[in-house]
Fold this protein.
Amino acid sequence: MRISAAAVAVFCLVVATIDGAAARHDPSPSFTHRPPWGVVSYGGNSSSPPSSTCSYENIDQKRNSTATVTSQILNSVSAGGGSPSDASEQAIPSAFIGAAASPTVQATTGLKRPPPFTTAGTPSMEDSTSTSSLSVATNRQRNAESIDTSREITDKTKIEEQTLAERKRGPLKILFLSSDTGGGHRASAEALANQFQRHFPGTTYDLMDIWSDVDSSWPYNTIKDTYKSFSASPWKWRTLYHVSNTAMHSRFADAHSYYMNEEMIREKMETYNPDVVVSVHPTMNYVPLWSTRKISKKLQRDIPFFTVVTDFGSGHVTWFNKDVDKMYLASEPIRQIAQNRGQVPDEKIVMSGLPIRYDFAKQADAMVDRTTEQGKAHQAKIREKLNIDPSKRMILVMGGGEGVGSLSDIVDEVYAKLRTQGVDATICVVCGRNEKLKSDLDARCWDTVVSQSLQSYETLKSRFWTKVLSLHAHRSRRIQLALDRAAAKAERGNDIADVPGDVDVIPLGFVSNMAEYMVAADVLVSKAGPGTIAEAAAVGLPVMVTSHLPGQEAGNVDIVLNGGFGDFCEDPETIGLEIACWLQDSQLLDVMSQKARKVGHPHAAEEIAVDIGETTRQWMERNELKRNSDQ
């Protein structure tokens, strides 16, 4: 028995030696099949397309099989079987926004490429030591062949990585859903489109109004006219907004609009043949989503649907459809509404900021912080470019694209208060399309304006009953202390300067370089439009909010007040007094500017576009994989 056991052991040793020698003499490495793509989920459990469109069970099985092989290869490499070319292998990046801003959003990491070949045919250090009986010439020849093979594999891998990067940033066909009910929706769509074309060259886009571009039924075909009429009458808008902002009304409107208009909307959307659909309007997140799913089923390819909420502090319930593939939000109050009222899951929410024009990102990067020497130098440079005196304070007054609101009275009071308190300043008034206001400001007698203005600081003082009755948050403690000091100074009779201030008024029409004017300004006076507030915050500009649409824009006022970078006031006289107080307190302006920068997100449009674009490319690759598997 002992002799038999020894014989068996010797026999096994001989066989192993022969096999090892054969393996060492095999000059050709064995390759593993590796697809040049990687389908990566874009966040949480919602990464796969909805079950109502296509099934991916076969695809997932193949991907899991590939992942298993990859895991085995990586384990082999970690055990010492790697090759020199392994060091050149890079991970495929797939980073998405929102993870750093909110712990509820899951960031996605890229799949690491497996080594270009298995380790079975690669000689190890131990093997090379045991081959001392082989000739030196044979070893050198084999090493040279191994190095040449490794270089070829490395070059091939680099080409594959470049091809993958090009595919990830290839052109897209984007369909934006929006309506001209206010300028903010179209502005957000154009800001996103600009970034898509920057990061995905060759991208084309269309903007569709699902209610106006088709022969929709009443009342949907009157949305534009209704907005213009009701927004001019606050009580009408307040009634419409709050009545429609209920779950019952939302369900009824969704069902009714689907029954009356879905087929027409679907036929129109299909003509665009989009790769991705992006909604930037609250009334376009239910019926268009159903239409997109039906188009996907018909064409046998999945089309992702994303919602970019363009409200800042409050949002209508129709924004929040939990069945969309991803939702981009600008603030924490909006996130709470999305989760509480829309039941939108965490993994579909991305805290991105509000998409604004690329000009603001460039100006924010150039200025960085307006309270620093670099920021002040950049501001002076922009003022010289705009022919604005850099030695004076600058106030930018806006009333929306149409130049609406009590702009004329506000400008009068701001001018009078700056003049009487000895503040040298330039007031730039954006009149928009209001040519009458522009011509009136050009011809106005400003001495008469000063003589008719009153000096009453009582309105600046903090009052208990005003806090109780206010529907908004309250101005910051730092701002209130500055106003109390100004009121106390006025009570001592020191409210009128010995030397009047040198104040200029420059009426402007429709401004296209708004980012430069906001950089040049020290204070912005405007209505509570979400885009305007987001743009001001992006460049660290303090804001005086003068009006807002009830319901829809009320939350934007709270963003400014809670953020501590401005105040809300509807009385022109009080507006003038408070702005004069701000401009005489440089430390207060610096504090407000720094708080505004904390709220601002100048690169939001870029980050949203990159995230949507990369996610869409993944869906397109998945569609291609499904087509190949079906053939």
